[in-house]
Design goal:
Length: 136
C-alpha cells in the first residue's frame, strides 16, 4: 500500500525537512487509525505558499511503527524505519499528472490516504531518477 503524507507547515510550525529536535521527515501525525499501516510506503509531500502554491516531494519511507501520539489534535502517528530523504525537495506541481493527483487526494485534505497505482508509478520514477533507489 502506498500513502500520501501531507506535511502542513503552518499547522505543524516547521518545514518538512527541518532537522530540529523532535522533528523527523519519517514521522506523520494523523487522526486516522494507524496500526494496520505498518509496512506501507508513505510519500511525504509539502505545499509551500509563494505567489501560488507549489508542491514538493521531500521523502519516502516504509512505516515501521504506528500508534498513539501525544499531539493535542492528531491522536496517532506513523514512523518510518527505512526510506530516503531527498537532499533537495522535488517540485511536483509542474508535472503534467500532478493536477489530477492532487484532485484525487482532495487537495491533500484527507490526511494519510492511499494513492492510486497510476500515481505511484510516477512517484517511484522520480525517486529512482533522483536517488537511484525507490521503494519496492
Amino acid at each position: 500500500m502506498n500513502l500520501v503524507g501531507y506535511h502542513n507547515r503552518k499547522r505543524m510550525g516547521y518545514p518538512l525537512l527541518d532537522r530540529g529536535p523532535d522533528r523527523d521527515p519519517f514521522k506523520f501525525m494523523t487522526k486516522k487509525p494507524v496500526e494496520h499501516l505498518v509496512g506501507a510506503t508513505v510519500w511525504a509531500i509539502e505545499g509551500v505558499r509563494g505567489a501560488r502554491m507549489e508542491y514538493f516531494l521531500g521523502a519516502w519511507f516504509i512505516i515501521g511503527e504506528a500508534g498513539p501520539s501525544n499531539h493535542p489534535s492528531l491522536g496517532n502517528y506513523v514512523r518510518g524505519t527505512e526510506g530516503e530523504v531527498f537532499e533537495r525537495m522535488i517540485r511536483l506541481d509542474d508535472r503534467p499528472w500532478f493536477s489530477h493527483f492532487r484532485t484525487s487526494q482532495g487537495n491533500f485534505g484527507f490526511g494519510l490516504s492511499p494513492i492510486q497505482e497510476e500515481f505511484v508509478t510516477h512517484l517511484e520514477a522520480i525517486a529512482a531518477a533522483v536517488l537511484r533507489r525507490a521503494p519496492g
